[in-house]
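As a warm-up, study this chain.
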Amino acid sequence: MEQQQQQLAAMLGPDPAPFEALVTHLMSTANDQRSQAEVLFNLCRAHHPDVLTLRLAHLLHASPHHEVRAMSAILLRKQLTRDDSAPASTPAPSAVPTYLWPRLAPSTQSDLKSLLLATVQREEVKSISKKLCDTVSELASNLLPDNAWPELLPFMFQSVTSDSPRLQESALLIFSQLAQYIGDTLLPHLHTLHTVFLNCLSSANASPDVRVAALGAAINFIQCLPTPSDRDRFQDLLPAMMRTLTEALNCGQEATAQEALELLIELAGTEPKFLRRQLADVVGSMLQIAEADGLEEGTRHLAVEFVITLAEARERAPGMMRRFPQFVGRLFAVLMKMLLDIEDEQAWHSAESEDEDAGETSNYSVGQECLDRLSIALGGNTIVPVASELLPAFLAAPEWQKHHAALITLAQIAEGCSKVMVKNLEQVVSMILSCFQDPHPRVRWAAINAIGQLSTDLGPDLQVQYHQRVLPALASAMDDFQNPRAHAASAILNFSENCTPEILTPYLDGIVSKLLVLLQNGKQMVQEGALTALASVADSSQEHFQKYYDAVMPYLKSILMTATDKSKRMLRAKAMECISLVGMAVGKDKFRDDAKQVMEVLMTLQGSQMESDDPTISYMLQAWARLCKCLGQDFLPYMSVVMPPLLQSAQLKPDVTITSADSDDDIDESDDESIETITLGDKRIGIKTSVLEEKATACNMLCCYADELKEGFYPWIDQVAPTLVPLLKFYFHEEVRKAAVSAMPELLRSAKLAVEKGLAQGRDESYVKQLSDYIIPALIEALHKEPETEICASMLDSLNECIQISGPLLSESQVRSIVDEIKHVITASTTRKRERAERAKAEDFDAEEGELIREENEQEEEVFDQVGDCLGTLIKTFKASFLPFFDEISTFITPMWGKDKTTEERRIAICIFDDVAEQCREAALKYYDTYLPFLLEACNDENPDVRQAAVYGIGVCAEFGGSIFRPLVGEALSRLNVVIRQPDALNSDNVMAYDNAVSALGKICQFHRDSIDAVRIVPAWLSCLPIKSDLIEAKVVHEQLCSMVERSDRELLGPNNQYLPKIVAVFAEVLCAGKDLATEQTASRMVNLLRQLQQTLPPSVLASTWSQLQPQQQLALQSVIFGCLFSELFPLQLVFHVYRFLWCGLLRHYACRSAPEDVRFCEEVVVLDVRGLISDLIRLRMRFVYLVYASFGAANHVSRFYWVSFLN
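Now compare it with the structure written out below.
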């Protein structure tokens, strides 16, 4: 400590050398020396801020050492940067604010400002001058809004008009930064700045550096202007801005040109409409640069990037680039030409890794990436016609590179053009399959790659329509051993992912046998591809894969146990993946014995020391989770092995490196290709994606275990919840957030089940509440900040599940926070939709842009749907006590009833009121005057989903509305009649609305009988029965019918039991549908009623009723009534034997005299296994009895009755 004080005293003394030495030591590569210097620097900052800042300023001004001046500029800037992200609360005593300006004496502040301006005039080294300008800009951004540096702007205007190019550049650099930081402060100088920028850009005497600095300042200033009219005043700068670029190129100054291009790309991304009036000239110039073979690749790539950026700026300038199809065609041709820049290197042919890109140049990579981006940005209607013109010529050319380029192009544009390409599948598939026989292996590989990509992007249409051509071609391609990369296993993987078992099963023999051959290939890359394809095929074919299990599993286990070398880590990892997917496909019973052996191997691996980059880790996490899904509760003993490393992976910190964007020290990417860099403002951020992917996998697996094991996951909740809850706001990786969101209700459910089943070691409901109090507020906070609409919807869904599980455990304050957040969600969604509506008014808006906006709005409808579900759950949980909250939120809900809203919004608004009316009953009557008129009007809405919600609400109001609803009965009947009598009321789109309208009509009959013409209305209601599509309402309606028959409802039965045949017919249909249309209790009541009718009705009435039934209805009733009686008299085992004896006999007799399809039907029944027979017979009874009836039609009534009743 004493030594530190001495050193500190020396630094603060009159001799500047010790302080300069300190700054030098701060740059030292020796950790100890640098650490000691940092301690002294921090002491000086804490106790002597005035001395520190002035010493740094003096060094920056006068040190003869370039590196010391540069470091002083960086350190000074840091001390003068306000940290707005720092907490507002008082810092800990040990914490020293990095922003020193408020702590400086006024004299120090004045001296510092003067020194900085003097240094700007003096500094000659460009790199140091830029750092100095950054420091001045940082300080000025804090002082100028308060007019605390009045000398600065006059100094800058004087400098920018001086004869010194260096001073001009410095002033423009500061203007550029200030436009970013405090652009509104510069607005009063708009006219002056316009003149300054125009002069600097147009002057023939201006140096390239000055012109580029002026370009940057002008672009930043244009971006900060608040209105389009302000930006229009700068339109005349654009030709001069473009000349900065073209003249640099004409003079061979490509480095300057590239700087200019980077600045123009920024303008294209942020203010594309600024370019619109001169778009043809600007884009034409850029394409000329892109087409100029004599320029450097970097220059041409930046020109391409400019045009792509304009195409992608659809939120700010929708449809603008599609107005110039000729430019799209030129750009597309440039990109395809870039794909030709590929060499046939021998390394590719002997490649051991699928990722090997030997022979691919930077031109090739840029062309490939930009084709993908362009097609996504502009869509198929624009891109496919352009591609259709160029592709045939490439495929007809003799050069293999052109064939390869055409196939790569098809693969790259498929995602963005999928909707159009699906309509032209025949042409596309034929084009690709014709290249499967190309003499060049790289072309064959590209063809297979294209099929694989199209299988993903154009699936499942491709699989459904062309499996008979594609799968045999891929199977044949697997015989291509000339080149290990030309095999088709990877394409099999893509194709099978969108395949149904029905499509895939006929090809399994050939595919599996060929994949097994590839597994024995000497090339590891081939083996890995075969394993991945086998896994996908098994996953897609499910139980159909059992046939191949015994042949496949020994190979897989052998690889798992023998591939132990470091070079074979990926092979072993893929074997794990394949084994676990095969196990899931074939099921626990088939997999059980091998599963134990596999898990022993995995446990051994789990306990071994693995390197951080070992792919085994991620694959093993997923394999364990699949094994859990396969084995269910049998997996619990292994959880103690699985969970510790899984938690460790889920808790990984993101590996992030931040440097200055203009730093000469690039983030080191040489050791790890998984590092991705992005530039945000003046920062360059490097993120190690492999760490994020492992973290995402682990979080998904935790969610999987909680979902699968339910209460069995309880022992791990206390460790998992604190791991996953903070990840609800993990903005580095969407998949991590999604997994955390999905896990929240699973954790709550696991805890609740464990408590209910006594597995929670003495914990009670208070534990569930404690967990709920931790999860739900965190979920609400994360929802408030979530930037992605899709994840917002998922969060609402998760929140809804959590509310369902926690139920009454929620406090009033928590309900309040949920309601407040729902208000925020509705407001934010409405704002986004309004912004899209504004985009739709753009002059370049077109149909393709309209389709994209429609897709975005569909995501908003999912958000609204989840909002409705959340409110519905709250209403069902808290009933009338929720109404004060409903009163608040109704101002957000009521506008959703408007005709200008989407059908989904209207439906959701109606459903919310339906829930209020149903759950709150008398307490909800006060809302009827407001909402019932909307409800009645919506009954006849054009959209069937809206109609369904509305007529359901009418039924609820009829049931609970009492005297409030009575005056509206007439109008309600009229509205319901329109729904029920609609000519196509029973088609698939309308039938749910029909069923709910019938249910509502029944409730009016039940609760408002005195307000209707019951003699006419009740039979009309009966005539609509049974209802069969809305199974929930069907049970309600048919129970009501049953009750009315039990009390001998006069209007229902009609004069002289006129409607009895209809009632009996309805009973027959309902009973023969099993449990679908009625509860067991209602079905039993119906059977009893039928027996009572049989016993109590006069024979003549019974005969009349019976005669009015259709033959099938008669048989169905006989089947049900006597079947129930028979099952009561005889044991189940005897019933089975009687069935089997009689049916086998009937089959022998019947086969000689029936249609082949009916014989097949009987054969189906006879071969049923014992366990499933009775349930299947019940399901199939009616049809078989009808066959018996038809077969023995000539026999007398008694023999028919004997067979029918005895069989049942």
